[in-house]
Amino acid sequence: MATDLIDTHQHLILRGDLGYAWTEEVPAIASGTFDQNVYAEQAAGSNITATIFMESGVDDVDYQNEARLVSRLVGSGYPKMLGVIASCRPETDDGFDAWLEECGDLNVVGFRRILQVMPDDLSRSETYRRNVRKIGKAGYPIDLCFDGRQLSIAYDLVRADPDTVFILDHCGRPDIAGGDFAAWRHEMIKLSELPNFWVKLSGLPTYCNPSGSKIDGVKPYSDTVLELFGPSHMVWGGDWPVIDVGGGLANWVDITTELLSGLSADERKLICTLNARQVYLGKR
Q1: Across-strand partners of 54?
Q2: What is the pLDDT of residues 184-241, one digit of tens each?
Q3: Cβ pair 197, 233 in contact under 8 A
Q4: pLDDT (tens digit, 9 = 90+) per residue, 132-162?
């Protein structure tokens, strides 16, 4: 039943070249380097056949250098890296257009601005939304990283720009351990009404109770996403190495196989590979 996977959420932590202050609070990845070689070891024996790099929350001074560095890795590695989702700063016009233009030469296939650690009003400004529209008009999708409590903000942002494709990372970072299912589902129902909105099945074990069953914790959330969005608006991501907090990449692949076991082969292919090629690589 195993279906090939394109990992649309491969982080790399390249210490020595870039800074990652946020990892100091995550013991599993607070030290050491997590590069393509380590990823290959973790993915060995799995059905991951290709990856798309996801910007890794580097220190602010390094966000452009990260894309420049990683762009040189596209086409390399096993599984092979297919493209780069780069960081951006839509909240300011200073240098934004130049960065968007430069990214056209950096194997960039999408953009993300991490928002769960930023003020809630950041994405509500006209500057932010105007620059997001520029990204969409250039043919790129935008990954969204909001906490579960912020999903109404995500809804407002996506609804304000119907011509851009948005992908919600980690199913909206629900507080699975805290039992936020009802509130999370309420917001996801609203988001499912937006035709330009996609969901990434990724990261969920990280938000589970550390001592509980990961599959039991994740399943109500994944089942809800499948019910509301269907396989046609979902992609898969590994979230390595952050997923080490939730049991590791290989374990998440096994959980994914179980979660999708009730779907047809064609439906699994949509989530696991075909949608990723459409959403991220369709412009190439």
Answers
A1: 85
A2: 999 999 999 999 999 999 999 999 998 889 999 999 999 999 999 999 999 999 999 9
A3: yes
A4: 999 999 999 999 999 999 999 999 999 999 9
Contact (CB, 8 A) for 66 and 112: no
Question: Quick count: other Cβ atoms within 10 Å of Cβ 24?
Answer: 10
* Token output for 186: 């309420």
Q: Which residue type occupies 33?
A: T
Fill in the amino acid letter for 223.
D
Does the global pTM surpass 0.90?
yes
Among residues 235, 277, 281, the alpha carbon closest in space to that of 107 is found at 281
Structure tokens at 49: 């056949």
Structural domains of the chain ordered from first start: 5-281 (3.20.20.140)
Structure tokens at 101: 């233009």
DSSP 8-state class, residue 171: G
The DSSP result for 139-164, as a single string, is T--EEEE--GGGHHHHHHHHHT-TTS
Cβ atoms of residues 20 and 52 within 8 Å: no
Residue 95 tokens read as 């240098």
| Residue 26 Rama label (left phi>0; alpha psi -120 to 50; beta) | beta
Tokens of 123: 């994405």
